[in-house]
Amino acid sequence: MTINELYTEIGGDYEQAVRVMRMDKLIDKHIRKLPQNGVADRLIEAGKTMDPTELFEAAHAMKGVCANLGLVRLSEMASDIAEEYRPGKTRKLSDSEVSGKLADLEELYRKTAEGIKKYEES
Q1: How far, in Å, CA of 98 to CA of 83, rounded?
Q2: Distance between CA atoms of 101 and 52, rounded to whole angstroms?
Q3: In 10 A of CB 6, how many CB atoms?
Q4: How far apart are CA 21 and CA 28, in angstroms?
Q5: Contact 20, 70 (CB under 8 A)
Q6: Regarding the domain delimited by 3-117, which CATH topology (the fold level of the hierarchy) does it fall under?
Q7: At how many degrees (to 10) do helices 95-121 and 3-10 cross?
Q8: Is 79 exposed, middle or buried (0-12, 13-18, 19+ CB in 10 A)?
Q9: Mind listing the pLDDT tens digit for each residue in 21-74?
Q10: Separation CA 122–CA 30 (nearest Å)
Q11: Where are the domains of the chain?
Q12: Residue 29 and residue 51: Cα distance in Å, rounded?
């Protein structure tokens, strides 16, 4: 499987990743690190406690990492959560709605991590 095929499989935007990282070697290096870097785990854990500060920080970090890697949908999902908890803003969603968004994010992340694992094994 090529890096481009990986992006097709996981629904990422390979062209965006190229615009940010400039070369396949860097994309390959960083996409392989995603499942181990803990950014998604931190956000999922924050969702268990519903700590507003931790939810904002974890979601903001995940948004940036995923945007740089061209994982647009994951980045957008994390951004929605970050904006919900941005300091100084009034919340619009209930805790159960946020939990639903986190569950959707976790599922998409799991599928992405599985695709990356398949890519590494090929």
Answers
A1: 11
A2: 15
A3: 21
A4: 10
A5: yes
A6: Four Helix Bundle (Hemerythrin (Met), subunit A) (1.20.120)
A7: 150
A8: middle
A9: 999 999 999 999 999 999 999 999 999 999 999 999 999 999 999 999 999 999
A10: 17
A11: 3-117
A12: 32
Taking the model in full, what pTM does it have?
A: 0.94
Alpha-helical regions (H) of the chain? 3-10, 14-21, 24-33, 39-49, 52-68, 72-84, 95-121
Do residues 98 and 50 lie in contact, with contact meaning Cβ atoms separated by under 8 Å? yes
Structure tokens at 115: 């695709």
CA dist., res. 90 & res. 94, Å (int): 12
Structure tokens at 36: 């181990």
CB neighbours (10 Å) of residue 109?
23
**Which amino acid, residue 8?**
T
